[in-house]
Amino acid sequence: FLETFPASTAKAEVLCTLSETMIQEQLFTKVAALADKYFDFSPTKNLMMLKLAELFCKNSLKLNQYDEAENYFEFIIKNSEDREIIGQAMLWKAEIAYNRKDYNKALVQYADIYKMYPNLKDKSLFRIAQTQISMDNYKEALITLEKLIKNSPNNDIEPSQLFIYATVLEKLGEYKQAVNMYLKYALDNAQKTDAELAYYQAASLSLTLGDTMDAIKYFNTLIDNYPQSPEVEMAYYKLVYAYLSIQSYDMATNYANILSKNYPNSEVTIQASFWLSDYYQKNKQYNEAIRKLDSIINSSQDASSLAEAYYKKAYDYYLSGDLDKAQESI
């Protein structure tokens, strides 16, 4: 149709339908070729041409062709009479600057959108905060997020402004406040995927603060409520450390055994086994220490871990007075 009727008034509609179909099939390079061949940047108020420009610019983003995408967005901004569409195009232009790591330019563009388009205030302010974070301007990001939370506490922006606020507090070393914010987010958003990470972060920071019993509680909440979470493995690992730090060795052993059962070849399982072997050695329980080291030797494929396990095993035999087995292990 496009070849046979190049001047048809249905050309833009056909291009839109064809482009949408090709994008659905992820034929992004072919869509780009279609754009190069047929798209005319001449001024127009034709809504179908503006829709086509939007399709082509998003396709260019799929190919990381930022210059081409900017040209299409600029076309929309200049020709559209719909403020909402213009605002979205300006937001996309700012996103391009951000993706190019031109953060100062992105900040200016997000600030312009914040001033000009009330319906995009929350989104643009959030992106200002994220840009400030990318520039390591955590204090400025904190102020921006506080403004956003105050003005729009219940917006549906993802990732959550509360979660990002907690991460910024953590970056600034405000661990107590960060723990409280992570917990607030987790309690208020129990069904969201970030809730499990929020519990993990709250627990880990509590451990850093020396609030060991709180850390244990939050790790167990994570394990009980989100058993399929990728954070569970590290939660078990840190529970071993937490119980060792308060000299609750039976509980430390219990969680180390869970690690060994559920994650037998994991690096953290191996490290937890080393911790327990050191504990047994200090208490002159050499057979138990050696048993833990044997579990590492039998499961690990890592040369440095194996070397360390054999060395520690030899030393345990030496301390127990069995010099022949010490020599054999060396």
Spatial separation of the terminal alpha carbons? 79 Å
Major pleated sheet: none
Percentage of β-strand residues: under 5%
- Helix-strand string: HHHHHHHHHHHHHHHHHH
Based on CA atoms alone, the radius of gyration comes out at 29 Å
Q: Which word captures the global form?
A: elongated
- The tally of strands reads 0
Helix/strand structural class = mainly alpha
Global mean pLDDT: 93
Low-confidence stretches: none
Number of helices: 18
Helicity, as a percent range: over 70%
Describe the 3D structure.
The structure is a single chain. The protein is mainly α. Helix content is 76%, strand content 0%. It has helices at residues 11-24, 28-38, 47-62, 66-79, 83-99, 103-116, 121-134, 138-151, 161-171, 175-188, 194-209, 212-225, 232-245, 249-262, 267-282, 286-299, 303-320, 323-329. Helix 17 runs antiparallel to helix 18 (323-329). The longest helix has 18 residues, at 303-320. The relative contact order is 0.04. The model has no long low-confidence stretch (mean pLDDT 93).
